[in-house]
Design a protein that fits this description.
The protein is mainly beta. It is built from two helices and nine strands. It starts with 29 loop residues before the first strand and ends with a strand. The relative contact order is 0.18.
Length: 122
Amino acid sequence: MRTGRKPSGGKYKKSRKRRSYEQARHFRQVILGKEKRKTLRARGGNDKVVLLSTDKANIINQQTKKSEVVKIKAVLETPSNRFLARRNIITKSAVIDTDKGKARVTNRPSQEGAVNAVLLKD
């Protein structure tokens, strides 16, 4: 929408308000801790599972092509924001320390309800 005023001096009027399906959701931070999920209603009556906190990750070993659930010890680094790693907040591309070693998160855990990661070579 244009801002300011018309050449005639009149105001521009909004054609309509924002619809509920156009509104953005709050940024959800997945904190390292006891597993906690929340189910939200999505568009069309579908359910969306939101992860609030977790201490487990689905780790994929690329050499053996096997996956397993392991415990997360800490968040080592987050390329997007170093302060998130200090607060143990898990985001996509964060490097986490697990029982099997270091791993990089490959999904968006706040939107998918689980943490998927790939083991890093040391």
